[in-house]
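Example 9 (inverse folding). The structure is encoded as follows.
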C-alpha cells in the first residue's frame, strides 16, 4: 500500500473521529437527561430513525443533532430544479458553473438548517421529563438564538468535513458521515437486544432469525451491487495500433443499480422530515398523520418503496448520460457491434440502462422495506429497517472500490516512471 493511499485513509479516519467527537458536544442550555428520556420513549418512530442516522447525536441534542440531512434536502431540491430548468442543468455541467451550483446548495443548507433548528428549539419549550423538569434551563428567547447558531455551526462543520473527506480522503464524504453514524449505533443496538433476551421479551431463536435476515440482506446487496451488464465495444485497427501499449477497455460496464445509495438516503430524508415535525404536535389529527408516517407503520414503508423507486430512476438518468458516452466512443474510434455510432448507440445504451434501472429500482425498494416486513411479522419489539443495512454495505463497497482504484493508479504511475 502506497504512502499516499495510507495518508488518505488516515485523513478520512481523522475526520470521522472529529465527527464522532462533535456528537458529544451538547447545545448550551439543554437538560440532556430530559431529552434522552424523551427519545428513549420514541425509539420506534421517526425520531428514533433520525437518532439512528445521526449516530445518537439527537438524543444528546449535540450541535450536530440535525446531522447532514439539511444538506441532503438542499441537494434534493437542487437536483429536481436542475432537471426542470435547462439553464441550471447546464450550469451544473460546466466547471465554473458547478462551483456556483455547489455554492447555492450551501446557501440553501443554511436556510433549511435555520428553519429546522428554530423549530426544534421552540418545540423543546413544551418538553418536560417524568419528574416535571423542563428540557430548557435558560431563558427561552436566549435559548432559541444560542441553539440555532450552535446547530447551524454544527451542520456547517459536518458539510465541511464531508467535503474534506471527498477531496483529500477516500470515498464520498457525505455517505461516510451517514455510514459512521449508523455503525456507531450498532454496539448499543446489540446491547439492547441482549437485554431483551435476558428479560424474556425476545426469544433466542428470534435473535438467530434476525441475524439470518441481516446476513441474507447483506448477501443480496453485495450480489446486486457487483452486478453489471458489459456492453461489448470494438475499435478500429488504427486505434488499436496507436494504443497497443495502453489498456483499451473493450466493453462499457452498466451497473444494475446505477443510482447507488442516494435513492434510499433521499427517500429517508423526505419521509423523516414531516414525521419528525408532526411528532411533537399536540393536535389529535396531526398525531394520527404522524402515526401513519412512523417508520414502524406499513404506510411509511409503502411510501419508502415508491420514493426509492422514483429516485432510483431519477438519479440514474442524471448519472448515466448515454449521449456523452456515445459521442466519446465515436471520437475514440469505437463502436458497439451491430449498432450505428452516434444517435443509434445513445438510444441502445439508454434502453439497456432503463431495463437495468427498472430491476435495480425494484431491488432498492425491496431491500429498503422487505427486512422490516419480515421482522414485523415475527413480532420483534423494535424497528429494524433495510435502509441502514443498505447504506452501510453500499458505502463500504464503494469505499473499497475507490481504495482499489487508488492502488491500481499508484501502481500504474510507478510502472510508467520505471518505463521512462
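The amino acid assigned to each position is listed next.
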Amino acid at each position: 500500500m502506497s504512502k499516499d493511499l495510507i495518508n488518505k485513509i488516515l485523513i478520512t479516519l481523522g475526520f470521522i473521529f472529529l465527527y464522532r467527537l462533535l456528537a458529544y458536544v451538547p447545545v448550551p442550555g439543554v437538560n440532556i437527561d430530559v431529552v434522552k428520556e424523551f427519545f428513549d420513549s420514541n425509539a420506534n418512530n421517526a425520531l428514533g430513525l433520525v437518532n439512528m442516522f445521526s449516530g445518537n447525536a439527537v438524543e444528546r441534542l449535540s450541535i450536530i443533532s440535525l446531522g447532514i440531512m439539511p444538506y441532503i434536502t438542499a441537494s434534493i431540491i437542487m437536483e429536481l430544479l436542475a432537471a426542470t430548468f435547462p439553464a441550471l442543468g447546464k450550469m451544473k455541467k460546466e466547471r465554473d458553473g458547478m462551483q456556483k451550483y455547489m455554492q447555492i446548495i450551501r446557501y440553501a443548507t443554511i436556510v433549511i438548517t435555520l428553519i429546522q433548528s428554530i423549530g426544534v428549539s421552540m418545540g423543546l419549550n413544551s418538553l418536560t421529563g417524568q419528574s416535571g423538569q423542563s428540557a430548557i434551563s435558560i431563558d427561552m428567547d436566549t435559548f432559541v438564538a444560542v441553539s440555532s447558531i450552535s446547530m447551524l455551526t454544527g451542520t456547517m462543520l459536518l458539510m465541511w468535513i464531508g467535503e474534506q473527506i471527498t477531496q483529500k480522503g477516500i470515498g464520498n464524504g457525505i455517505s461516510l458521515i451517514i455510514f459512521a453514524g449508523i455503525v456507531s449505533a450498532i454496539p448499543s443496538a446489540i446491547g439492547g437486544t441482549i437485554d431483551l433476551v435476558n428479560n424474556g421479551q425476545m426469544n433466542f431463536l428470534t435473535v438467530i432469525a434476525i441475524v439470518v435476515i441481516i446476513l441474507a440482506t447483506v448477501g443480496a446487496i453485495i450480489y446486486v451491487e457487483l452486478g453489471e451488464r458489459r456492453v461489448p465495444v470494438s475499435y478500429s485497427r488504427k486505434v488499436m495500433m496507436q494504443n497497443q501499449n495502453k489498456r483499451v477497455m473493450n466493453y462499457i460496464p452498466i451497473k444494475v443499480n446505477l443510482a447507488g445509495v442516494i435513492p434510499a438516503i433521499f427517500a429517508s430524508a423526505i419521509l423523516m422530515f414531516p414525521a419528525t415535525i408532526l411528532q411533537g404536535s399536540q393536535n389529535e389529527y396531526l398525531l394520527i398523520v404522524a402515526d401513519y408516517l412512523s417508520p414502524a407503520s406499513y404506510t411509511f414503508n409503502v411510501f419508502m418503496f415508491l420514493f426509492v423507486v422514483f429516485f432510483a430512476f431519477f438519479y440514474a438518468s442524471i448519472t448515466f448520460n448515454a449521449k456523452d458516452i456515445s459521442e466519446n466512443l465515436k471520437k475514440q474510434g469505437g463502436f458497439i457491434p451491430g449498432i450505428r455510432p452516434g444517435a443509434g448507440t445513445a438510444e441502445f445504451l439508454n434502453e439497456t440502462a432503463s431495463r437495468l434501472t427498472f430491476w435495480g429500482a425494484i431491488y432498492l425498494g425491496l431491500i429498503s422495506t422487505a427486512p422490516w416486513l419480515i421482522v414485523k411479522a415475527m413480532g420483534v419489539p423494535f424497528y429494524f429497517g433495510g435502509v441502514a443495512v443498505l447504506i452501510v454495505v453500499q458505502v463500504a463497497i464503494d469505499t473499497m472500490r475507490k481504495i482499489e482504484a487508488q492502488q491500481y493508479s499508484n501502481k500504474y504511475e510507478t510502472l510508467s516512471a520505471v518505463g521512462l
